[in-house]
């Protein structure tokens, strides 16, 4: 990402004047760093410490299953209540986890800097739930195990599309969170946002057709990605403290 000197807000210019000219390669918010370490710790524990039987219990009780909601809730445990959020802390492989961490660093950092950790906690829970809600609409009653923070990452991407792009279309990695938030109509009229969103949706639709994925479309909950992105894009103003 490039720093856009012409679009840097006055507050940011003062910060630049008092800080070294070179921007750190990694400058993550502390809260996001804690979340990433938590995701890694959970996967290490599941992969190298817990026996397979216990890990299967964790998957059954904390992963998301559309089939839970095809049965009377009173006749089952409470996993239907928390699994729309807890699934986002579980991952199927190291590749899956690293992929999500990469995009969370890119798009989660400006969102966290902008809304803070308290709002982030609510945003995480609701974007995770919105992601699997759309997934369930396409797979009602199916016994499909859904894990991973991809829906939340997609929510970060949708939210970031509302403010990270400067008027020139560039992204300042360190100061993007200081930009003015675009309204939905302004965002849809912004060329950079439209191109970014168009490529994102096209990629996910192609994944839905089975392209780019060795295991086919069934191995990726691409509908959940779309649910998370739409949540972040359309409802980000509810979490944004900046006018």
Can you describe this structure?
The chain has helices spanning 10-17, 30-49, 52-62, 79-86, 94-138, 150-160, 184-189, 191-208, 222-235. By secondary structure, it is mostly helical. α5 (94-138) packs across α6 (150-160), α6 runs parallel beside α9 (222-235) and α8 packs antiparallel against α9. The protein is globular and about 55 Å long. The two termini are 25 Å apart.
Entry summary:
The chain is mostly helical. Helices cover 58% and strands 0% of the residues.
Described by the principal axes of the CA atoms, the overall outline is globular
Secondary-structure element sequence? HHHHHHHHH
Annotation field: number of helices:
9
- What is the structural class? mainly alpha
Give the secondary structure arrangement, pairings included.
Elements: H1 10-17, H2 30-49, H3 52-62, H4 79-86, H5 94-138, H6 150-160, H7 184-189, H8 191-208, H9 222-235
Helix pairs in contact: 2-5, 5-6, 5-9, 6-9, 8-9
């Amino acid at each position: 990402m490039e720093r856009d000197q012409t679009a840097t807000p006055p507050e940011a210019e003062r910060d630049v004047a008092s800080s070294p000219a070179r921007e750190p390669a990694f400058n993550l918010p502390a809260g996001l760093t804690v979340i990433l370490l938590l995701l890694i710790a959970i996967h290490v524990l599941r992969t190298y410490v817990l026996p397979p039987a216990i890990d299967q219990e964790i998957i059954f009780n904390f992963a998301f299953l559309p089939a839970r909601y095809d049965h009377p809730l009173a006749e089952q445990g409470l996993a239907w209540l928390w699994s729309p959020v807890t699934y986002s802390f579980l991952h199927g492989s190291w590749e899956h986890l690293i992929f999500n961490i990469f995009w969370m660093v890119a798009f989660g950092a400006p969102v966290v800097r902008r809304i803070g950790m308290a709002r982030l906690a609510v945003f995480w829970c609701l974007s995770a739930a919105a992601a699997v809600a759309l997934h369930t609409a396409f797979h009602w009653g199916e016994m499909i195990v859904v894990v991973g923070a991809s829906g939340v990452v997609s929510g970060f991407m949708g939210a970031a599309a509302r403010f990270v792009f400067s008027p020139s279309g560039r992204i300042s990695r360190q100061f993007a969170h200081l930009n003015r938030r675009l309204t939905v109509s302004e965002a849809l009229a912004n060329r950079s946002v439209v191109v970014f969103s168009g490529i994102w949706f096209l990629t996910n639709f192609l994944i839905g057709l089975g392209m780019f994925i060795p295991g086919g479309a069934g191995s990726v909950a691409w509908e959940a990605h779309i649910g998370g992105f739409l949540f972040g894009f359309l409802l980000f103003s509810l979490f944004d403290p900046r006018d």
